[in-house]
Design brief:
This protein is of the alpha+beta class. Helices cover 30% and strands 23% of the residues.
Length: 111
Amino acid sequence: MILSYDGHTGIVYILMAEAVSIRKTVEFDPYTIIELGANGQAVGIEMIKPSTAILNRIAKKYDRWELGRVHLDKLLKSLGPARKMPGFKAAVKEAVAYARSLKGEDETYPV
C-alpha cells in the first residue's frame, strides 16, 4: 500500500495494488473516488477531503480491512494545515469538477 499526500491541496491518494488495470472508477461520496480492478476490488482511492471515518467505511464496503490500519486524521495532523493554504478551496473545487467530468456530469458541490 502506497499513500501519497499533496500538501498544497490536501488530497490523499492510496494505491493498494500495483500493476493492476483500473476497469472502473466510482464516486463513493462527492469528495472520494474509488478505482476498481477487473474483479471489482478497490485498488486505488483518491480523497479530496480525507478522513479516517470515510476510509473505514470504504474498508468495510470493499472488504479491504488493511485500510483500518491507516489513521489519516493523525497522519494529516502531523503533516500540517494544508487546508489553510491559499488556493485550497479552489483546488478542491477543481478536483471535484474533474472527477465529475470523468463521469460525464457537470454538477459541482460547494466546498
